[in-house]
TrEMBL record, chain A:
Its EC number(s): 1.10.3.-
CDD domains to which the protein is assigned, alphabetical: CuRO_UO_II (cd04212)
An annotated Gene Ontology molecular function: oxidoreductase activity, acting on diphenols and related substances as donors, oxygen as acceptor
Chief place of localization: membrane
Membrane topology of the entry: Multi-pass membrane protein
Protein name (Swiss-Prot/TrEMBL): Quinol oxidase subunit 2
Top-level taxon: Bacteria
Lineage: Bacteria, Bacillati, Bacillota, Bacilli, Bacillales
Gene Ontology terms: biological process: ATP synthesis coupled electron transport
TrEMBL record, chain B:
InterPro entries cross-referenced by the UniProt entry: Cyt_c_oxase-like_su1_dom, Cyt_c_oxase-like_su1_sf, Cyt_C_Oxase_1, Cyt_c_Oxase_su1_BS, QoxB
Protein name: Quinol oxidase subunit 1
Organism encoding this protein: Terribacillus saccharophilus
Function recorded in the entry: Catalyzes quinol oxidation with the concomitant reduction of oxygen to water. Major component for energy conversion during vegetative growth.
GO terms for biological process, alphabetical: electron transport coupled proton transport; oxidative phosphorylation; respiratory electron transport chain
Ranges for domain Cytochrome oxidase subunit I profile: 36-556
GO molecular function terms attached to this record: copper ion binding; cytochrome-c oxidase activity; heme binding; oxidoreductase activity, acting on diphenols and related substances as donors, oxygen as acceptor
PROSITE patterns found in the cross-reference section: COX1, COX1_CUB
Reactions performed catalytically: 2 a quinol + O2 = 2 a quinone + 2 H2O
Pathway: Energy metabolism; oxidative phosphorylation
Family annotation (SUPFAM superfamilies): Cytochrome c oxidase subunit I-like
Length: 342, 649
């Protein structure tokens, strides 16, 4: 009797977490923008097909186990049966058809996600995507608004209904920018730039994080996304421009020291000016290690008894007394290239 | 490396201290027992220097069980840390080391040696051979694996474990971001074990092609032999890539090359590609033999020939080809072009076609059969629904555009545990229980075995099914803790409970080994289950004599032993004995591998003189081996008669 129930009990397991999770929709299936919507649609389509396959196999298995288990009069026993052209053809062709059915929307979505989401209104069509450079540093996020000339640490504001073009790179380890409510992730890699389009259609605060393991502080590499009405967003930009301190190269280089950002209570900060005046990590992967050298930071064995660092102050480093501005303007900053390797 | 003397042995962590003490006590106990019972010489002559594929198989399996225990403890530590938000059971650094070693150990030092152990024991018997093509190499393979495993395992007490994940992605794994000896252990231990695996690949590929008994054409081989053959082919093509990639990263870390580094225009993403060019075929290296084991068991206990044998062969060959064409799906999110992602999406989904064909063929092997629910059969039956769940989520992951949302999350973690546990681990249990009487002369107790089975399978689903939902709710893999407001607490707690159920089932399984050794009745024939279909059951005694077959069997069709029984032929009736040529034991592989271990240990800490002494030693043992003219010995007809007569008592 127990054997008969086995596949059924497995189905029960299928249902159990569904019931538990039933109180709230999982983040990925509760999209707040067009990119996440496309992905959620694709996921739900695939779940329907997959559940059908699972059901077919479970039912077949149950029937076969019940019907052909060893019993006294095994009159149905046919040991000579060892193949069937018809059946084999059926279960080769059906999976092929399913793969084709799933491949078409997959490929379409892959191509569609390479572009900014289609604007819904005519006035939105005239707007370019908002460009934000998202730079991952062990273990914090730096968001750079080049047109607004401001920079934030561990949080960002975006206007709703407008595509955001994230230019992703990393100052050190490979990370992945992921805001599940707005869409899937993409890698941040030092010496390269990748592009990720996202868009929020609802005002709200969303969780974002690094999804790719980067070592000790990986847990803490999270950020908040504030999706605001256009006017509120503009207000925030102005506030930052008016009140935030000027970003200095020394301050920025200190961000490059591995660690969680704890200079403020809530672990966030904002600056006037951007680090792009000195370094674009997608064009120069060496910079972080050079900054460590300048500041006197040395990587230490995690099991070392003494892990203290003797960092130099700004006055002790002549490098910071000079102007180190780099001009990237002649290079094509808005290149359509993906993961271009310098 | 400027390692201070007091940083050599890891101190200051109660968990590690506990492990150190238990390893020390365990070691003393083993040494004392061997000395007290005067077993040192027996151990060395009968086992450690043995070239007998059966003994090597058993040693592989014992090591794998030990590693299942170690990797399992790692797993339980991970689950304990994640049971509730904000747990302080492991700090992030310790957690990173634990999940990194969990991955490496389970894949490379548990799954592979377990399967290679079963292949070692069974395949030569199934093809009617007396040993493998290169018995000496077989011993060397075992020892390189063992030394690699030992080196990797000591890392957590000496110097510190690797902490960059089992994938060892650069630039995180470079000196700047993973200072200390940890990642060196990873590189050198896997390197040594990998050489052994490559030799196994060559050895068994040649064995299966060249040493089949009379009448056994390729299309008359058992499905386990077929899957082993294809697995070896994948090993031969995939492992050199790993060897080279590991060597490159080793050069980066030890000798200052800039291949995968941030500085000097290194290309860290090249490592990611090379790793998965090996890593994806590796997945099929650990799943194809599992498919073979399930095929054997399902057909045995359904008392029917495997359904659609030819289609099964075509499927595994197709899978092996496709396995080399899908590696990019491990990093769809790297910003590849839409063309590349589309291509690799489709090739990945295509793998589900031959796999689906296999699932239906297994189901229809049982159609109109006489199914008996023995423990190995239960494991094989549980494989089907669980693997299908793992498989369909694999198809979902293959859809690149959706994968951007699953990548690096618990959805993925759950998927690969579903395929690797219900595929590989279930197969290891099923195969071990099924062939246990062949190895040890008695069966494992069925009742205790069924308890272990149910607790494990239920625990497995309780542990991993909730993780799909955690993934969809945005929980990334490899985080060491989370916040209460993330809303992942309940499902994580359920998952942890499931993990401990699996741990309990493992303990019951191990207890069963002891219990059955004490109380199970000893088998009197070679065909322990009475339903054997292939030649491994055609031996005179339950445990085959060291030469396997007194007279090599002749094969006329599929399922040759079943065929013989149907026709009333008795393999044992043929007493036309001739002297049998057998290979001699050798002690050089153990010594050579120990020297490799010594050299590697030196390199881990950058003590180059130790490395040089070890390397010179390796060459000296190679030279000694080259002048070894011992090409085996003959088992006399008298001895065969004696052994065969004793076997039927």
């Amino acid at each position: 009797m127990l054997k008969k129930l086995k596949p059924l009990s497995l189905l029960l397991f299928l249902a159990l977490p569904l019931m538990l999770a039933g109180c709230s929709t999982p983040e990925v299936l509760d999209p707040k923008g067009p990119v996440a919507s496309q992905q959620s649609d694709l996921i739900i389509l695939s779940i329907i097909f997959m559940l059908t396959i699972v059901a077919v196999v479970f039912v077949l298995l149950t029937i076969i186990l019940v019907k052909y288990r060893e019993r006294k009069d095994h009159d149905k026993y046919s040991p000579e049966l060892h193949g069937s052209m018809l059946l084999e053809t059926i279960w080769t062709i059906i999976p092929i058809i399913i793969v084709v059915i799933l491949a078409v929307p997959t490929v379409r979505t892959i191509y569609s996600l390479e572009e900014a989401p289609q604007p819904k209104t005519a006035e939105a069509a005239n707007e370019d995507p908002l460009v934000v450079h998202a730079t991952s540093i062990n273990w914090k996020w730096v968001f750079t608004y080049p047109d607004e000339d401001i920079e934030t640490v561990n949080y960002l504001h975006i206007p709703i209904h407008r595509p955001v073009e994230f230019k992703l790179t990393s100052a050190d380890s490979m990370a992945a920018l992921w805001i599940p409510s707005l869409g899937g992730q993409k890698y941040n890699m030092a010496g390269m730039q990748t592009t990720l389009y996202l868009q929020a259609d609802h005002v709200g605060t969303y969780d974002g994080r690094n999804a790719n393991f980067t070592g000790e502080g990986f847990n803490e590499q999270r950020f908040k996304v504030y999706a605001d009405e256009e006017a509120d967003y503009q207000q925030w930009v102005e506030d930052v421009q008016n009140s935030a301190p000027e970003l200095t190269q020394y301050t920025y280089d200190n961000l490059l020291i591995p660690g969680v950002y704890d200079k403020t209570d809530d672990g966030t900060a904002e600056f006037n000016g951007t680090h792009l005046q000195w370094i674009d990590h997608s064009k120069d992967a060496n910079y972080t290690l050079e900054a460590w050298d300048r500041l006197g930071y040395e990587p230490k064995n995690p099991h070392a008894k003494d892990k203290s660092q003797n960092l130099l102050t700004e006055d002790e480093i002549p490098y910071y007394q000079q102007d180190n501005t780099v001009d990237y303007s002649d290079e094509n900053m808005d290149s359509e290239e993906h993961a271009s390797h310098e | 490396m400027d390692l201070k003397w007091n940083e050599f042995i890891i101190t200051g962590d109660p968990l590690i201290l506990g492990a150190q003490i238990s390893i020390l006590l365990g070691g003393i106990a083993v040494v004392a027992a061997l000395t007290y019972f005067k077993k040192w010489s027996w151990l060395w002559k009968e086992w450690l220097t043995s070239v007998d594929h059966k003994k090597l198989g058993i040693m592989y399996i014992l090591s794998a069980l030990l590693m299942l225990f170690r990797g399992g403890i790692d797993g339980l530590m991970i689950r304990t840390q994640l049971a509730k938000p904000g747990m302080e059971f492991l700090d992030p650094q310790h957690y990173n080391e634990v999940f990194s070693t969990h991955g490496v150990i389970m894949i490379l030092f548990m799954a592979m040696p377990f399967l290679i152990g079963l292949i070692n024991y069974i395949v030569p018997l199934q093809i009617g051979a007396r040993d493998v093509a290169f018995p000496y190499l077989n011993n060397l393979s075992f020892w390189t694996f063992f030394v690699g495993m030992a080196l990797f395992n000591i890392s957590f007490i000496i110097g510190g474990s690797p902490d960059a994940g089992w994938t060892g992605y650069t630039p995180l794994a470079t000196n700047e971001f993973s200072p200390g000896p940890g990642q060196n252990y990873y590189l050198l231990a896997i390197q040594i074990a990998g050489i052994g695996t490559l030799m196994t690949g060559i050895n068994f590929f040649v064995t299966i092609l060249k040493m089949r008994t009379k009448g056994m054409t390729l299309m008359k081989m058992s499905m386990f032999t077929w899957t082993s053959l294809i697995t070896m082919l994948i090993i031969i093509f995939a492992f050199p890539v790993l060897t080279v990639a590991l060597a490159m990263q080793t050069f980066d870390r030890l000798f200052g090359s800039v291949l995968f580094t941030l500085q000097g225009d290194g290309n860290p993403m090249l490592w990611v590609n090379l790793f998965w060019v090996w890593g994806h075929p590796e997945v099929y290296i650990v799943i194809l033999p599992a498919f073979g084991i399930f095929s054997e068991i399902i057909s045995t206990f359904a008392r029917k020939q495997l359904f659609a044998y030819k289609a099964m062969v075509v499927s595994i060959v197709t899978i092996s080809v496709l396995s080399f064409l899908v590696w990019v799906h491990h990093f769809f999110t790297m910003g590849n072009s839409a063309e590349a992602n589309s291509f690799f999406s489709i090739t990945t989904m295509a793998i589900s076609i031959p796999t689906g064909v296999k699932i239906f063929n297994w189901l229809f092997t049982m159609y109109r059969g006489r199914i008996t629910f023995t423990t190995p059969m239960l494991w094989s039956l549980a494989f089907i629904p669980n693997f299908v769940i793992g498989g369909v989520t694999g198809v979902m992951l293959a859809m690149a555009a959706a994968d951007y949302q699953y990548h690096n999350t618990y959805f993925l973690v759950s998927h690969f545990h579903y395929v690797l546990i219900s595929g590989t681990v279930f197969a290891c249990f099923a195969g071990l229980i099924y062939w246990y009487p062949k190895m040890f002369g008695h069966k494992l107790n069925e009742k205790i075995g069924k308890w272990a089975f149910w607790i494990f399978v239920i625990g497995f689903n309780v542990c991993f099914f909730p993780q799909y939902f955690l993934g969809l709710d945005g929980m990334p893999r490899r985080i060491s803790t989370y916040l209460p407001e993330d809303g992942w607490t309940g499902l994580n707690m359920i998952s942890t409970i499931g993990a401990f159920m699996m741990g309990l089932a493992f303990l019951i399984f191990v207890y069963n080994i002891y219990y059955s050794w004490r109380y199970s009745p000893r088998e009197k024939t070679g065909d322990a289950w009475g339903l054997g279909r292939n030649l491994e059951w055609a031996t005179t005694s339950s445990i085959p004599p060291h030469y396997n077959f007194a007279v090599l069997p002749e094969v006329t069709g599929l399922d040759p032993y079943w065929d013989m029984k149907e026709k009333g032929l008795d393999q044992q009736k043929n007493t036309d004995y001739k002297p049998i040529h057998m290979p001699s034991n050798s002690s050089t592989p153990a010594i050579m591998s120990a020297l490799m271990g010594m050299a590697a240990f030196g390199l881990v800490f950058q003590w180059y003189w130790v490395g040089i002494v070890g390397a010179v030693g390796i060459f000296i043992t190679m030279i000694v081996r080259s002048f070894d003219y011992n090409d085996g010995y003959y088992v006399s007809v008298e001895e065969i008669k004696e052994t065969e007569a004793k076997a039927n008592k």
